[in-house]
Amino acid sequence: MIEIDRVVKTYQIGETPLQVLSGVSLKIDQGEFVSIMGPSGSGKSTLLCLMGCLDSPSSGRVILAGQDVSSMRDADLAHVRNQIIGFVFQTYNLLPYYNALHNVMLPMIYRNGNRITGGERQRRAEELLEQVGLAHRTHHRPSQLSGGERQRVAIARALVNTPKIILADEPTGNLDSKTGEEIMIILKNLNLHGVTLVIVTHDPKVASQAKRTIHITDGMIRQKQTLFSGSD
Hints:
This protein is of the alpha/beta class and 232 residues long. Helix content is 33%, strand content 29%. It is built from 7 helices and 10 strands. Helix 3 crosses helix 4 (118-131), helix 3 packs parallel to helix 5 (147-159) and helix 4 (118-131) crosses helix 5.
């Protein structure tokens, strides 16, 4: 499902090049649940952005669901993102002036070749909000929701186009432990239904729930496979 092949990512900071990833290679199979760990600045979020077509490598290849996205144009990358990938961010990234329902509907509105009617979009969004336990908060704006509720909205939004891959960057980082556990239950349930799940985290407890953990330090993978029994 995801293949990273000898990827290098370098940013230009003024006149100084900063290499964030140094020849990273890894494969993630369809339906896997993988966590990525590493200290701040290690390159783990950059790696997630490359997997999610939010950035392109300086060299090497990124292959998603059989498509080489390494040198795609921005418009083509946007199409892949919308068709294949769902994102869950630590900061939720909800639009503050839209209610929960409209935040969830947005990816469907921008989907290429969209022939879904407004009524169908609304029904789909309502179903997903019910699935994450927020049927009673449909018309509330983000400022009226708790952190856990905002993250549930973000998960519903990530699912609205039925992605093959969910990429989550510190999805429990802003939440208390009980709410974080509830969010992980939702994400693990998605994985049990066949969605490929990749989570970047600092939390060993979150990482231990994955079937495989990738450790990255100074832009390089130090330990490719650490298997856990999980905490079902």
